[in-house]
Every structure is written in C-alpha cells, then in structure tokens.
Design goal:
The protein has 282 residues and is an alpha+beta fold. It is elongated, with a radius of gyration of 22 Å. The N and C termini lie far apart (58 Å). 28% of the residues are buried.
Length: 282
Amino acid sequence: MEFKAIDLLGKPLFKWVTIKPPIQIPANMPDNEACFIYVLQGECINYSETDEIKTAANQALLSKCGSNSFKALSMEGSAEYSAISIHFHKDVLEKIYDKSVPPFFKNKQSQVQVNTTSVDATELIKQYVDSVMYYFEHQGLLSDDILILKLKEIILLLLQSENAPRVLEIMNNLFKKKTFTFKEIIEAHICSSINIEGLAQLNNQSLSSFKKEFRRIYNDTPNNYIIQKRVEKVAHLLLISDETISNIAYDCEFKSIAHLSRIFKTKYGVTPTKYRLNLSVK
C-alpha cells in the first residue's frame, strides 16, 4: 500500500492511496468527519448501512460519518486501485467559515436519510482532482490559505453536481450521524454483494458476535436467511417484472441461472421458468 497525505490546520485534507486488489477492509467514518472519494484507477465497492455503491475510475462518492465497508476489486488491465479523498473535518470547517455562512447551510436541517451517495464527476471536478494531484508533487508551493481555498472550491463543485439535492442533504447534515438498526442493515443488503464479514463490520461486531445476534433475531443462519429472502425476491420479480430470468438472477446476486433454479425448485417445487409460465396461465 502506498499512502500520501496533505494536512490543513493539523488534520488530513487530501489523501492519495494506492493498493493492490482484491482487498476488503472496514472504512468507518468518525462522527466528526466526512469525505469525498474520487477513483483514479481500478474499481471499488463501498458498502454503507443501507447502500452498495460501485465506483470505477473517474467516478466519485461522498460519505459522511457512519459505518462503511470498502472492497477494492480485481480488474482486467488494472493491477492497482488508486484514489484521492478530500476530508471534511467539523472543526476545520468551523474555522474556515467562522465569519461567513457555509454554502450548504440551511436553517432547517432535513432528515438524514443516507450516509453515502454517488457523485457525478463533472469536468470541473476532474480538473479539480488533477490540480490536487499536482499539489502532491509540489507541496512546497502550498500554504494554508491555498488549501482553504481548495476546500471551499470542492464544496461548491459538489453542490453544483447532478446529484446536488442528495449532496446538499449530506453536507447540511455533515456531522449528524444517521444510525441504523441491525435489521435495517440486514434487510437493505439482502441482494447486495457484501459478504457476511462485511455485514458484521457494518454492525460494528466481530464475526462470532454478529452470527450470535443474527441467530437471536432471525432464528436462522445469515447465509440461509439471505438465500431464502433472495429466492422470495426472485419469485416476486417473476410476478411483477418482464425482465429475463438471467437478469433477475444477476440482480438478486445468484451466481448463475443453474444456481438459482436449484434453490428455487427446492423452495417452490418448480423452476423459475415453470413458475413464471404457471403465473401467465392463471
């Protein structure tokens, strides 16, 4: 792993990390911090309590305080994952906006719905990231005044992005943590690619503690419960959707149609194809 950082007022403002995938690690955001992540090379998946966001090169996301799990993916033609992150610290923002109102401030705070959102990487954001990369190679040119301007600049760019309403919600509630229950996290990730270890991380538990809690709540193992819920989701989609069975299988995280058919037949007594045919006849 290669790691570089540029600090502002004693806190990391810019980070540049390069790692060799595949790797999955906890990436929890502290209560007083949020960050914008721009992927330079490779691809990753960020799992928050209720979302799974895949981010490839030249794409970005905004994440505020909360539980997260991060996975860098192996990709053909890309041996490394590399990304630049810009960090928003509450005390730093309070200092740089001590005599003015932050552009994301609203008198009435909206209810916090999410902790993470994808961000449209506009051409201006791409140029901004290029300038940050330049500063990593020429840190002698930097001063706190320049870094403060750069921090204010990215905030304005984020608020002008295509996903501005969701960005504004996150920025306005930047350090107001949205907490999720154990069941909310599980149900949100039924058809997610996250593994059991990742679910334990999102719940801030060890794997053994997570399995015990899961058994207490659901009276089942995580793997069996999730598989059964996925099969039920497939049955529901076969009823209401015209999507192909292969697409439904993919969306519900089944490895193949054969894998889905075997489990589906065990639960419903027929294959997905026959199940849909029976529905059309009724």
